[in-house]
Amino acid sequence: MRAAVYQSAGEVVVEDVPDAALREPTDAIVRVVRACICGSDLWAYRGIIDRPPGSRLGHEFIGVVEQVGDDIRTVRAGDFVVAPFQWSDNTCPACRDGIQTRCEHGGTFGAPGTEGGQGEAVRVPEADGTLVVVPVSGSGPHGVDPALYPSLLALSDVAATGLHGAVLSGASEGSTVAVIGDGAVGLCAVLGATKVLGAEQVILMSRHPDRAAIGKEFGATDIVPERGEEGIERVRELTGGLGVRHVVEAVGTPDAWDMAIGMTRAGGRIGAVGVPHTTPQLGIFTPFRQHLTLSFGVAPVRHYLPDLLGRVLADGYDPGRVFDLSLPLERVDEGYSAMSERRSIKTMLEP
Amino acid sequence: MRAAVYQSAGEVVVEDVPDAALREPTDAIVRVVRACICGSDLWAYRGIIDRPPGSRLGHEFIGVVEQVGDDIRTVRAGDFVVAPFQWSDNTCPACRDGIQTRCEHGGTFGAPGTEGGQGEAVRVPEADGTLVVVPVSGSGPHGVDPALYPSLLALSDVAATGLHGAVLSGASEGSTVAVIGDGAVGLCAVLGATKVLGAEQVILMSRHPDRAAIGKEFGATDIVPERGEEGIERVRELTGGLGVRHVVEAVGTPDAWDMAIGMTRAGGRIGAVGVPHTTPQLGIFTPFRQHLTLSFGVAPVRHYLPDLLGRVLADGYDPGRVFDLSLPLERVDEGYSAMSERRSIKTMLEP
Questions:
Q1: Do A296 and B279 touch (CB under 8 A)?
Q2: Which of A285, A300, A339, B285 is close enough to A100 for a disulfide, judged by CB 3.0 to 4.6 Å?
Q3: B56 bridge partner residues
Q4: Which of A167, A38, A159, A164 is nearest to A108 (CA)?
Q5: What is the dihedral of CA B219, B222, B225, B227, to 10 degrees?
């Protein structure tokens, strides 16, 4: 089968790899219908973090179950499924706490040594606890309307990660929320804050008109293109001089953290879903002085998936709007460069 | 009048200073009945932070109102009062949010340039928003039972700061909580977690038998004398291998933070009330990976004072147990050295 493989910074290729095959009785094999490229895939592509040459790529995919191991009870061949970007048994203490991304039998698709979503098929460990079945609607080659593919695919990571950021920020009905990061996760934080949590005022920090436009569609009430101190000042102006009670940090860089801490109202809360590769350390004296709560976490997508799936199927919840480029798998390299150069917000791949 | 004055690291003296006097119509003058020395006063005494020579000391006191400014409505001469360690107008947005320690007209007693509690009298700015009157009970020279002085004095800082740490940690009815720090604040965190919040299991990290004994009186169910990795391991053993959902960090040093992060269960929450003078930066990758919530803050004592005062007067709430040394003001230097050398948990001063 064909799959995307990392060679070196700036170099991703599609090549022949061994066919996906069952290894454990708790595995399933999923034939990929759509996959995509994540902002976090770019860390290695840009050479910011190391990644072994030859490692498989991608952690977001939807597809059709092809084969299941002997112990599998909740999915079967032919099911159309969404896979969260990490697998989990969904029964261990962490899973029961709703933190499937700390599952004691969990792992991340596309992490070095595992199979990736950017390929024709994937072995899914702990398939019973991991995969969520999309009910057959009758239309489309797999019984699911292809118009829904982008939003279903977004559920595998960014839709839930954005929502998680908003949840961690403590946003709820009527809140004012600021979102730092206008990538797919930041945009999905806007969507989650407004449509799921009921936030009233959502300020999106964005200086890219195409992203800001989607942010507005998703419910952002204010767009702030300024950055740094100017951005903080602008957000304070929009919030009676006091700052925002709920801030989503969806970037992870020191500059983004400075903005987040600077714009949060005393006693406020920052939901941090940006992977802090470039922010190993954070100054805590200002958070201490300002009575801030910093809530961190790799989004437990599996926890949010059933609810979000229902919203996509029934309520027109459309996180798939973040996809603005679609490519065949064989041209995956174009997707990486387009996202790295910010010519694409998020790129979908078709095997 | 006489008051404690900082000279240099290791040198605190009592000398003549100008009498406390009204300056603003919102001021009150309080004649100090009891004051005390705080763990945070030791930062400068030990030379860890700078402090101007000649600056007044102390931020915890109880006393009798001697004189009030023209605008004062809620206290009058003769009232027995507890002063929180910071003054606040109790009406600004931060105060209304319950964060009186970010009051826009606030300040800290004993901060360089202000008057300190370790003296015969104190000018209290924003007295209406700051002072809390203790109802007259009839007994004692000021109408308040002197046996209650230690607990009333503890309300000016440590009782509320400890409780605040427990609140920030998210502890509630039935929780398991770990407390790092067996100073007065840590001990009061134990008391607050058990008696106010209803925590069921409280693990106190303590290797000082005298402090551990008070911790047990205050409701600690487990005492862990080990530190570092051993301490973390021991706490994990006590919590089914998973770590604790609620941790109070009442020290502020890098070692204490390492323990706090190491012992917190995935998805758990750390309430941080230890001033991070020696921990300017904190690694955030582990908090991110472990889904931790870090909640920081200088305790808004004024917010907790009315409730805690009621508990002291009616329910036998006795944070004053943390005082194990009482000295006349003139011997304040002995108190500083006793606390610095850990011969005293907390020292009370009588002018």
A1: no
A2: A300
A3: B5
A4: A38
A5: -110
- Residue ranges with strand state E in chain A: 2-8, 11-16, 28-36, 61-68, 80-83, 86-87, 107-108, 121-124, 132-134, 176-180, 201-205, 222-224, 244-249, 264-272, 281-283, 293-296, 325-328, 347-350
* Number of other residues whose CB lies within 10 A of the CB of residue B246: 28
Q: Which residue is closest to B291 within chain A, CA to CA?
A: A297
- Residues B71, B74: Cα–Cα separation, whole Å: 10
Are the beta carbons of B311 and B196 closer than 8 angstroms?
yes
d(CA A312, CA A298): 22
Residue A104 vs residues A99, B237, B242, B245: alpha-carbon distances, Å:
10, 17, 11, 17
Burial B9-29 (b: 16+ CB within 10 A, else e): eeebebeebeebebeeebbbb
Q: Tell me the average pLDDT across B171-200.
A: 98
Residue identified by tokens 């982008």 is A150
C-alpha dihedral sign at A69, A74, A80, A84: negative
pLDDT tens across the length of chain A (351 residues): 999 999 999 999 999 999 999 999 999 999 999 999 999 899 999 999 999 999 999 999 999 999 999 999 999 999 999 999 999 999 999 999 999 999 999 999 999 889 999 999 999 999 999 999 999 887 889 999 999 999 999 999 999 999 999 999 999 999 999 999 999 999 999 999 999 999 999 999 999 999 999 999 999 999 999 999 999 999 999 999 999 999 999 999 999 999 999 999 999 999 999 989 888 899 999 999 999 999 999 999 999 999 999 999 998 999 999 999 999 999 999 999 999 999 999 999 999
Query: Domains in chain A, start-ordered, CATH in brackets?
Result: 2-157+300-350 (3.90.180.10), 161-296 (3.40.50.720)
Is B96 an 8 Å CB contact of chain A?
no
Does B293 contact A at CB distance below 8 Å? yes
pTM for this prediction: 0.95
- Within chain B, residue ranges assigned H as helices are 42-45, 93-96, 127-130, 149-154, 158-168, 184-191, 209-217, 228-238, 254-263, 285-289, 301-315, 332-340
CB distance A296–B288 less than 8 Å? Answer: yes
DSSP label of A196:
I
Query: Which residue in chain A is spatially nearest to B169 when comparing CA positions?
Result: A293
**pLDDT digits 0-9 by tens, B280-319:** 899 999 999 999 999 999 999 999 999 999 999 998 999 9
If you write DSSP's letter for every residue of B99-147 in order, what string do you get? -GGG-TT-EETTSTTS--SSBSEEEETTHHHH-EEEPP-S-STTSS-GG
Q: Which residues pair with B1 in a beta bridge?
A: none
Of the candidates B240, B267, B276, the beta carbon closest to that of A97 is on B267
pLDDT at B138 over 80: no
Q: Of chain A residues 109-138, which have a CB less than 8 A from chain B?
A: none
* Sequential DSSP letters for B30-45: EEEEEEE--GGGHHHH
Please tell me whether the interface predicted TM-score (ipTM) of this complex is above 0.90.
Answer: yes
Contact A109, A87 (CB under 8 A): yes
Residue B195 CA to residue B182 CA, distance in Å, equals: 17
Name the residue among B111, B114, B74, B79 with its Cα closest to residue B91: B74
State the Cα–Cα distance between residues B260 and A255, nearest whole angstrom.
27
- Tokens matching residue B280: 């300017």
pLDDT grade for B278, boundaries at 50, 70 and 90: confident
pLDDT, position B139: 82
Structure tokens at B17: 């200073």
Tell me the pairing of strands B244-249 and B264-272.
Answer: parallel
